[in-house]
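Re: Re: token formats

Sure, here are both.
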Amino acid sequence: MENTTTVRTVEVAGGSSEISSARHLTEVERSRFAPWFAAIALYSVTDTTGVALSLNLGEVSDILGRKSSHQFPGCDNRVWILTEDEEAALVAASTAKTAACDAVKAAREAEPVTISAVCPLCGTHCYGDCTASR
């Protein structure tokens, strides 16, 4: 009997990451790929809602504590099958990272912008061609 069970996954591709559902390949689908790829390939289930994450490949790998074990056909990606606890940990880490980034952005936007034509190295209007800048 074929294992086409739907599983929750996280995919990292092109610098972005997303949690979604996927399924294992059927025997007919496996026959279309090289054996090594058929063993790790999953198909994304498109009728489910994905959760976009603000985590990169290194962050996902560190949180899960393991390397990716699967791939989706068609592009350079890394895919992990998730447990419920792992999915919750990724969502929490992504939420925390987004909140931290938003706080930094808000702090930067709140700072007044100072524009000065005075060289910070020599204290004159040398436009950066002073001896202090060499």
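Second one below.
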Amino acid sequence: MRLFFNGRVLKWETFCDFGEWIADCNVRNELTDSRALGDPHQVVYAMTGNRYDRFAYMPRRFPEGTFKVLSITEKDPADTYTWPYFIHTDACQAVTVWDLDREGGYLRPTSRRVMDYGYGLHHSSSRTTLGCIRIVYEKDVRAFAHLLQRETDNKIKSTLSVNYII
């Protein structure tokens, strides 16, 4: 399966079918003045692949490029952020580490950068994500997960190309 995301629509095509779903990638960060700097509850940590790392950073939208779609995880209904499915990719990007103030809120960006992994696709009732592609309607992410599983069962690899339109 080939997937194409332009910031507004996720298009897909298989050997014999095609379609599209409404999707977006809206993040709250310092660039949009939408993430409070001094509030420790707003701090996000990079997913570096080491669960012991604690590198604060400002979320960035899903990186541009072409990535592998790796797997699907069915999520617990208690996880309202990524329920019912999370679709994993190999997307990653370098992000700037932030210093924190004494209370644990964002203070200032540093010159240090780390790789951030964990970018995927999911549905969320929130209008923003931490950089993932949000499939707006739950029914669409369910259809996507089933379609992707069928492709995976048939040993067909899937790719996602991301190129934002202005």
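The two ends are 26 Å apart (CA to CA). The first strand starts at residue 2 and ends at 5.
- S.
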